[in-house]
Design goal:
The chain is of the alpha/beta class. It contains 14 helices and 15 strands. The chain has a single domain, classed as Glycoside hydrolase/deacetylase (TIM Barrel). It is 40% helix and 16% strand. The strands form four sheets. Strands 1, 2, 3, 6, 7, 10, 11, 14 and 15 form a nine-stranded mixed β-sheet that branches. Strands 4-5 form a two-stranded antiparallel sheet. A two-stranded antiparallel sheet has the order 8-9. It is globular, with a radius of gyration of 20 Å.
């Protein structure tokens, strides 16, 4: 038995349309491709297409927008050429965005895809698939846009979104992280699994009784007694308590610098999802020790913790039945290139896997994971 690490990246500007495209999206992504090639690893860009369409709309009269649109297209072409993957991601607040005095103004009332009409949802998803395939099929006729992640995970109520995905020929959704909950946006606390994919019908959390046209590949998560408040001031102690590892100082420094730079680029008061948080008594209690869902995120977890979470799977009851079998189990991880200041953390993860755990963990694209679904389901 081996694990296949499927690193997905929600490839986009910040949620309010801010951020220098070349600084936070394009340049670090091109460096990432070089890094992945050097270490024989792979990634899947979940390409947010709506920002691209809005830049294209004004590109005839705006050189900056035209340069961004051309670079965006070059990046997804490069992704495929270098053995990586590109799939669809949509943030509907970009609908009819306005570019005024050098800044984008988005419609935050459309933050959730599922808040749109069924007709509009289907149209956007179909447009995204057609757009990516029109660009990438020029490079390889084998490319297919078959996987989707909703912007900010807002796929619920999923009975409005799933039919649009199925009718447009998608095979996979990967918006769910078991245990995550955001008031008024999504609720994955009762999702079927944190690891294994499942066939879905009208409710993204539930496993269908029979094989269907759509599967859910969840972003992996674990539940731990974890304190966000303690982690802010005593991160080494908190990670030791939660994961049983000593996180090196350079990793903790990287995390601290990441948070400082993100706050400068995208201040908390500008983050719409923060405004949706319900700050009641329970919320404050949960900032101290509580059972917390921790997503497998290579841009947020220190490299030592990230690798430890993967290795813990080999001793988990979830994989007990697979020990000794010749099977590869995909594990979905997420990240956001816009949130980091350099690639040190993801490089540490990849190098550690290749040097110490190559016999246990390999790298896989999301398309490759989808193509393995029949093998996995057969053994479940």
């Amino acid at each position: 038995m081996k694990l296949a690490l499927v690193m997905t990246n929600d490839w986009e500007l910040f949620g309010d349309g801010s951020g220098d495209f070349f600084e936070i999206q394009y340049d670090p992504t091109m460096k990432l491709f070089d890094l992945l090639e050097k270490h024989n690893a792979k990634i899947t860009l979940m390409a947010e297409c709506m920002q691209q369409w809005e830049h294209l709309k004004i590109s005839n009269n705006n050189k900056k927008a035209k340069d961004i649109a051309n670079a965006w297209e070059n990046a997804i072409r490069t992704s495929l050429r270098t053995g990586n993957d590109v799939q669809l991601h949509l943030h509907p607040q970009w609908t009819n965005a306005k570019y005024i005095d050098g800044h984008w103004q988005l419609d935050m009332k459309k933050w959730s895809l599922a808040s749109l009409t069924i007709k509009d949802i289907s149209q956007l998803i179909g447009q995204g698939k057609k757009y990516l395939e029109s660009i990438l099929k020029n490079d390889t006729n084998e490319y297919r846009c078959v996987a989707f992640r909703a912007g900010s995970y807002c796929i619920q109520p999923s009975k409005k979104v799933l039919p649009a995905l199925i009718s447009n020929g998608f095979k996979c959704d990967t918006s769910v992280t078991k245990g995550l909950y955001a008031h008024g946006l999504y609720d994955f606390r009762e999702a079927y699994s944190s690891l294994f994919p499942w066939y879905i019908e009208d409710h993204v959390n539930n496993k269908a009784d029979n094989k269907t046209d759509m599967i859910e590949y969840p972003i992996y998560s674990v539940n731990k007694m974890y304190s966000e408040a303690v982690s802010k001031y005593f991160p080494k102690f908190n990670n030791k308590l939660a994961f049983g590892v000593d996180v090196p100082k350079d990793e903790l420094d990287w995390i601290k610098k990441r948070d400082c730079i993100k706050e400068l680029r995208y201040p908390q008061q500008n983050r719409y999802y923060k405004k949706k948080e319900k700050h009641d008594f329970k919320w404050y209690i949960n900032k101290f020790f509580s059972d917390t869902t921790i997503q497998l995120d290579y841009d947020y977890l220190p490299a030592t913790v990230f690798v430890k979470i993967l290795l813990n799977l080999f001793n988990s009851s979830e994989l007990e039945k697979f020990r000794g079998m010749d099977i590869v189990i995909p594990v979905i991880a997420s990240g956001h290139i816009k949130d980091i200041h350099n690639l040190n953390n993801i490089e540490n993860i990849i190098v550690r896997i290749n040097q110490d755990h190559k016999d246990k963990i390999e790298f896989m694209t999301l398309t490759e994971a989808i193509n393995n679904i029949n093998i996995i389901q057969k053994e479940m």
